[in-house]
Amino acid sequence: MASNLDTTFAALADPTRRAILSMLLEDDMAVTDVAEPFQMSLAAISKHLGVLTAAGLISQEKRGRVKWCKLEPDALHAAAVWMQAFGMMGPLDLDAFEGFLQRELDMKTPPTADAADGD
């Protein structure tokens, strides 16, 4: 699973690839349409699409003479589950945490000599 996560996060590390995924959220797109908003060659876009395909984040299929790209929605499931594990910790309530620490310190503080003489 770790190598799949590595591949997924490596693919997501590039802003161009993240933009491509956002575009494909709307609908399937031809490769030429994917390339249109970017200031790079079709070959460069094809390399980005290859990385996304290798990571399983998109699929590509030829329909007639046109190559189409499709988002694979389940591909991010493992990454989402992994990231949600870190969300299990709720927001930290600093006041409650400070109170907890104070109670712990009070329990561990030895009685002073004056307190011991008073018993």
How does this structure look, described?
The protein has 119 residues and is mainly alpha-helical. The protein is 60% helix and 12% strand. It has a three-stranded antiparallel sheet. A hairpin with a 2-residue loop joins β2 and β3 (66-71).
Q: Count of helices?
A: 7
Order the strands across the largest sheet as they lie in space: 1-3-2
The CATH superfamily appears as Winged helix-like DNA-binding domain superfamily/Winged helix DNA-binding domain
Q: Name the overall outline.
A: rod-shaped
N- to C-terminal separation? 63 Å
* CATH class descriptor: Mainly Alpha
Number of strands: 3
CATH topology call: Arc Repressor Mutant, subunit A
Q: Assign the CATH architecture.
A: Orthogonal Bundle
> What share of residues is helical?
55-70%
State the order of secondary-structure elements, H for helix, E for strand.
Answer: HHEHHEEHHH
Tell me what portion of residues adopts beta-strand conformation: 5-15%
Specify the biggest β-sheet: 3 strands, antiparallel
Structural domain tally: 1
Q: Mean pLDDT, rounded to whole units?
A: 85
Structural class category: mainly alpha
Unreliable stretches (pLDDT < 50, length at least 5) are: none
What does the radius of gyration come to?
A: 27 Å
